């Protein structure tokens, strides 16, 4: 498997009569930050459910060195922290503090260290003022942040967001994605972000583009974003800055696509 | 159908945290208009929709929805008829579903509102088509659909009984680009062709910018600002003080003004913006 933390070979999967994946091959390198995109219903979340063993398959999936099967399921799940779009059913504790502590207690970490970890992650995500509140009473965005905090506290080698930041508005999401980006750089955490908001791709290094259960393309973010054709075919837009620079390039004002607004503005009005 | 809030206060029912969710709010939502409500989390946006739908009742003041008056201790004469005129599409559609197929889910709403059996099939199919889903979805389990598809189904349920007022809570969450474009088209048609009154709660300002006629910015249960979209979005401080990002197209124009002193016009779409940039530079 080399330096791949996830590899999938020849995977086919269907929901009853409805085929989702057909002969899918996919590899995700250790320490990469990938964004999985594709139209709604293209199979993005199904892929995550397959990785977690929530959907059954006999085809080859290897995660963090373990083949996905019943015997390895526990070890595999321990290597992945996941935040879903709807997190309500996940909460077990009475307070946010206990909720974040819950998963750590299972790992028999001593109390003092647990407290420090909780404070660290809640400071990082800016949720220290809600630690005494009941998870069920929180707003949708705070629920997602608490779920993320629980994941970050465990420091898993793989963090998966399955539309896990979808309840956050774009400003908040940028802040969190910047935090995850730092984590990815400093700790070499593999981050897999499934999103419907195309602006999010600018935070990752790589894009996996899925449509109709097929891998359309996988590659460096900037390179995939140049492929206007595949976005058009899936009726998807590219990030605002890319769409704008595409038009300005057409007018001859610039000679390449831009991924940073300040850079674009400074180059145009020198 | 016009909606008028007259000095409405709503105190939360949570005994441990009695606070004013809505504070002495007076506002008139006009007929045949798309109104956008934006504001920080906890500012009372969702409560505002629930008050219109009479899911909660004001602690003080009253709300007129058409001829119906919603007030403390006032009983709505025919609640079923009232609710039939007000469609509320929730933020988390999956929490509403309890039938085994999409068809049954939509039919349930129709039966609830006493539609005739003979027109049921047609209404179900028409509603589904309006939101861009075809017949193949009829027999599928709503809980096995993607978030975007679930959102569409919940919109179809609302459209099926043809309410005069459509209330949408964060409708773009979980929708992909195509879903957003379809939603914009659909809401424009609902306004222009069917004269619906539409109220949208959303901090997706790119979406709001494309669709609304008038905006209210909520803060702490009150209206902090109101105006047409250019008034609200061109002054970048109005919404950024609440940590809400202006539409990207406006944000870019503001940025150019701020760092280069160049004034571009406020535009609705990216093609016009690009032309403005070209004219300015050449």
Structural summary, described in words:
By secondary structure, chain A is of the alpha/beta class. Chain A has one domain: P-loop containing nucleotide triphosphate hydrolases (Rossmann fold, 3-Layer(aba) Sandwich). Chain A has helices at residues 44-51, 73-78, 96-105, 111-125, 140-154, 170-187, 221-225, 228-233, 240-250, 261-268; strands at 4-15, 18-29, 33-37, 60-63, 66-67, 80-83, 158-162, 190-194, 206-211, 214-220. In chain A, strands 6-7-8-3-9-10 form a six-stranded mixed sheet, sandwiched between helices. Chain B is of the alpha/beta class and 282 residues long. In chain B, a hairpin with a 2-residue loop joins strand 9 and strand 10 (222-227). In chain B, helix 3 crosses helix 4 (117-130). Chain B is globular, with a radius of gyration of 20 Å. The termini of chain B are far apart.
Brief overview:
The complex is a heterodimer of chains A (270) and B (282). Chain A has 270 residues and is α/β, with parallel strands linked by helices.
């Amino acid at each position: 498997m080399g330096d791949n933390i996830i590899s999938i070979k020849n995977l086919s999967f269907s929901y009853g009569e409805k085929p989702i994946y057909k002969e899918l091959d996919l590899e995700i390198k250790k320490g990469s930050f990938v964004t999985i995109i594709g139209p709604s219903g293209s199979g993005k979340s199904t892929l995550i459910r397959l990785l977690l063993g929530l959907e059954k398959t006999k085809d080859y999936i290897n995660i963090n060195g373990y083949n996905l099967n019943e015997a390895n399921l526990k070890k595999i799940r321990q290597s992945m922290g996941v935040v879903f779009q709807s997190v309500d059913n996940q909460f077990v504790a009475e307070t946010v503090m206990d909720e974040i502590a819950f998963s750590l207690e299972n790992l028999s970490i001593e109390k003092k260290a647990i407290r420090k970890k909780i404070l660290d992650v809640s400071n990082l995500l800016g949720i220290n003022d809600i630690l005494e509140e009941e998870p069920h009473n929180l707003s949708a965005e705070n629920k997602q942040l608490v779920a993320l905090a629980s994941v970050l506290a465990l420091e898993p080698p793989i963090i998966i967001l399955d539309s896990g930041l979808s309840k956050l508005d774009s400003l908040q999401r940028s802040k969190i994605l910047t935090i995850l980006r730092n984590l990815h750089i400093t700790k070499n955490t593999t981050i897999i972000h499934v999103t419907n908001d195309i602006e999010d791709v600018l935070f990752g290094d790589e894009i996996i583009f899925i449509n109709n259960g097929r891998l359309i393309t996988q590659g460096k973010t900037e390179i995939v974003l140049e492929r206007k054709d595949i976005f058009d075919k899936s009726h998807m837009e590219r990030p605002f800055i890319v769409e704008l620079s595409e038009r300005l390039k057409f007018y001859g004002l610039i000679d390449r696509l831009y991924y940073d607004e300040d850079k674009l503005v400074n180059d145009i009005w020198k | 159908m016009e909606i008028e809030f007259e000095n409405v206060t709503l105190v939360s029912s949570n005994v441990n945290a009695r606070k004013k969710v809505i504070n002495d709010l007076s506002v008139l939502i006009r007929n045949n208009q798309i109104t956008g409500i934006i504001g920080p989390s906890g500012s009372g946006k969702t409560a505002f929709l629930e008050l219109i739908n009479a899911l909660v009742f004001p602690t003080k003041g009253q709300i007129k929805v058409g001829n119906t008056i919603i007030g403390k201790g006032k009983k709505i004469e025919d609640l079923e008829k009232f609710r039939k005129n007000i469609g509320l599409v929730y933020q988390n559609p999956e929490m509403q579903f309890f039938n085994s197929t999409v068809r049954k889910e939509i039919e349930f709403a129709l039966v609830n509102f006493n539609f005739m059996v003979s027109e049921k099939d047609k209404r179900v199919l028409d509603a589904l088509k309006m939101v861009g889903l075809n017949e193949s979805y009829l027999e599928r389990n709503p809980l096995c659909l993607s978030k975007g598809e679930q959102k569409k189904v919940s919109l179809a349920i609302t459209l099926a009984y043809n309410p005069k007022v459509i209330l949408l809570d964060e409708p773009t969450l979980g929708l992909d680009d195509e879903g957003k474009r379809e939603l914009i088209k659909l809401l424009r048609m609902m306004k222009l062709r069917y004269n619906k009154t539409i109220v949208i709660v959303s901090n997706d300002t790119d979406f709001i910018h494309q669709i609304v006629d008038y905006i209210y910015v909520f803060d702490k249960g009150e209206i902090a600002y109101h105006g047409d979209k250019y008034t609200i979005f061109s002054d970048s401080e109005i919404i950024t003080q609440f940590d809400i990002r202006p539409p990207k197209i406006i944000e870019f124009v503001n940025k150019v003004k701020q760092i280069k002193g160049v004034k571009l016009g406020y535009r609705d779409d990216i093609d016009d913006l690009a032309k403005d940039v070209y004219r300015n530079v050449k």
